[in-house]
Amino acid sequence: MITIKNLHKKFKKLHALNDVSASFSRGQVVSLIGPNGSGKTTLIKSILGIVKPDAGSILFAGKSIDKQVAYRDNIGYMPQIGRYPDNMKIGQVIEMVKNIRNHKDGTLDDELFFDFKMDEMQDKNMRSLSGGTRQKVSAVLAFLFNPDVLILDEPTAGLDPLASEILKDKIIKEKKKGKLILITSHVLSDLDELTTDVMYLQDGKLHLYQTVENIKQQTGETRLEKAI
Ligand code: ADP
What is the pLDDT of residues 47-59, one digit of tens each? Predict the structure, then answer.
């Protein structure tokens, strides 16, 4: 569904992405891991079209993203820190996003909205929200338009254990429906049950891109956090 070829991105002398190539297909949950500054966010933002690579190409459904605008409507993005107007209520933010975003087939996916009990919190002001509730709003928005691709940047950071479980269950369900899900996280133990593939970046280079099954087999470990 997404193919990236020989991506390079430099910020002055710093090589944030150094010849990164990979393909992602439906039904994959890819965990993008690596130390701080290894290029994870730059890679995600390149796929989202927010960062323009210096060289290389990104194809979405076989066509270069430079030649299509609407592909973004098919990607749900949960940023590390969602920024929303302070003076709006949760319900208003969700309505606003519904009104301004095009979506492919009109189906809304409001399962997380109810699972997170957002219907009881609609009147809360964004300014008064805890980090965790803000994360829930970001998650609801990422899944809202039933996209084929989900890009989740540190999705469980700041979520309480129950909310983390709800989100993980949702990710597993979406994977089974054939969605492609890319996740960055520091907490490998959080990813173990979800992940099909691990992509490890270091200094902008792709050091490893393998199925979890292979990694576990090769290392003889049964838990991902021990195997990496
Ligand atoms: P990660 O998400 O793995 O922590 P990033 O992709 O955010 O890594 O960053 C990779 C490198 O590129 C880091 O050294 C970071 O400081 C640098 N970088 C990222 N964005 C910018 C930018 N807009 N301007 C300058 N340097 C940047």
Answer: 999 999 999 999 9
CA of 4: how far to CAs of 1, 40, 62, 186, 210, in Å?
Answer: 10, 14, 11, 23, 16
Who lines ligand 1 at CB under 6 A? 11, 14, 16, 34, 36-42
Q: Which residues contact 120 (CB under 8 A, 6 or more apart)?
A: none
ipTM over 0.90: yes
Residues 6+ apart with CB under 8 A from 92: none
Residue whose CB lies within 8 A of the most ligand 1 atoms, among 18, 41, 154, for a mutation test: 41
Give the number of the atom of ligand 1 that is nearest the alpha carbon of residue 34. 3
Backbone angles phi, psi at 126, to 5 degrees: -55, -35
Domain 25-38+70-227 has CATH 3.30.465.10: no
Residue 139's identity, in one-letter code, is: A
Sign of CA dihedral 154, 155, 156, 158: positive
Helix, strand, or coil here: 14? strand
Rounded-to-integer distance, Cα 44 and Cα 78, Å? 11
Tell me which residue has tokens 């975003």. 101
Give tens-digit pLDDT for 198-227: 999 999 999 999 999 998 888 888 887 787
pLDDT digit string (tens) for 138-184?
A: 999 999 999 999 999 999 988 999 999 999 999 999 999 999 999 99
Residue ranges of the domains in the chain? 25-38+70-227
